[in-house]
Design goal:
- This protein is of the alpha+beta class and 395 residues long.
- Helices cover 33% and strands 29% of the residues.
- It is elongated and about 100 Å long.
- The structure holds zinc ion.
Length: 395
């Protein structure tokens, strides 16, 4: 079995490396290549695998088999013994190093708040830490974030130690280590010791910034979301941009946003109530006027009343002999007196193509949409429908 030297542990800042091909596995769509050393972290401990290229070919996948690390590329033409050039997507790796060191720092700080890290996710978009021991409130989250950024500001060195099952006992680990033969211990300047196989920055200042971005409940535990490093600065820039826009809209300082918005909401509620009252009064007046027509009512009301037409039509249907048709914008409603032996759906079917009618409902109350330029033809059609001779029973 070949053994691949993990150069990413010697120097996690290394971007390029020459390596020798030790073994090849051919597959239908490419080759797995095992090299004597590699720059690429194969993933693990919550940290995703690195990305990059081998002799200019994009590495599509990375796997480990015991001590060997394999890289998959689709069009490799070389042979065993050849030298190949490995090149790391370093900006992505550096971002992952910020996430990983940031997560260790966060877990250390959370410990101080009685919250133990149960699992972590180091993602492209955010980093999440699931904890046991409580559900922090907004004040605690602010204090956790503040403590993290204070430790970042101190620029504390981050060291790595190699240990085995025996020598690891000298380290006050935050969490028990696994049963690996060779263990790495990542230390944040005497504060935090963690058995970890990931890649890390040299000092806490390189983490840049930690923003606590939210909290959710999962499996009965708290899961905290963080934006770390470059992602945190991006988030701040977005906040600034949005704040400026809102500031221009509200014409007030950010501290006044909540008060101003709740005042606007209150004003809007009051206006809504007033509008509803006015609508009711207006509809009542319209109703009084329309009901003078004993036989049949056809009326177009302003589009603002589109949601009220069925109520209005229904309220008058039993006061006329034949029916009530109310239009508003592109909506219509046809209500018939309960004892009237016609089915409004028949009218919709008959006139569908001429007036673009869509809709339906119970026989005595149909409604829907229409497409017409001029109401008079529809008025005539409704009228002749209601005036048709019928021989008893609902048509
Ligand atoms: Zn770790």
């Amino acid at each position: 079995m070949h053994s691949t030297h993990k150069s990413y542990y010697d120097d996690p800042y290394l971007r390029k490396l020459e390596a020798r091909v030790e073994a090849l596995q051919q597959e239908a769509d490419g080759s797995w290549i095992c090299t004597n050393q590699t720059l690429f972290y194969p993933g693990g401990g919550g940290q995703p695998a690195d990305q990059g290229s081998l002799d200019g070919h994009r590495i599509q996948d990375i796997k480990t088999e015991t001590d060997s690390i394999w890289h998959f590329v689709s069009d490799f033409k070389g042979n065993i013994g050849n030298l190949v050039q490995l090149e790391l997507d370093f900006s992505r790796r550096y971002y992952m190093m910020q996430q990983h060191s940031g997560q260790h720092l966060i877990s250390h700080v959370l410990d101080g708040f009685g919250l133990q890290t149960e699992s972590v996710h180091l993602g492209e978009q955010y980093t999440a830490v699931e904890v046991s021991g409580g559900f922090p409130d907004a004040n605690q989250l602010r204090a956790i974030q503040h403590r993290c950024n204070t430790l970042i500001g101190k620029g504390l060195p981050i060291h790595t130690h190699i240990a085995n099952q025996e020598s690891i006992k000298q380290f006050p680990l935050r969490k028990e280590s696994g049963m690996w033969e060779v263990l790495r211990v990542v230390e944040i300047d005497g504060l935090d010791f963690s058995a970890c196989g990931g890649t890390h920055v040299k000092q806490t200042s390189e983490i840049g910034l930690i923003l606590c971005d939210g909290i959710e409940k999962i499996r009965g535990r708290a899961r905290l979301h963080f934006k770390i490093g470059a992602r945190a600065f991006k988030q701040i820039e977005m906040f600034q941009h949005v704040t400026n826009q809102v500031q221009n809209l509200l014409q007030t300082e950010p501290e006044q946003f909540p008060e101003r918005i709740s005042r606007l909401q209150e004003e809007q509620n009051n206006q809504h109530k007033t509008l509803e009252q006015l609508k009711r009064l207006y509809l009542h007046e319209i109703q009084k006027e329309l009901i003078q027509q004993p036989d049949f009512i056809f009326y177009r009301i302003e589009p603002i009343f589109a949601n009220e037409i069925s109520k209005l039509a229904r309220s008058m249907a039993n006061s006329v002999q034949k029916g009530v048709c109310i239009l508003s914008g592109q909506r219509f409603c046809l209500a018939l007196p309960e004892s009237f032996p016609l089915n409004g759906n028949t009218f919709i079917q008959q006139q569908q193509s001429q007036f673009g009618l869509r809709g339906g409902g119970p026989p005595s109350l149909v409604q829907g949409s229409l497409q017409i330029q001029d109401d008079s033809a529809l008025r005539e059609a409704v009228q002749s429908f209601l005036n048709q001779p019928f021989s008893g029973g609902i048509s």
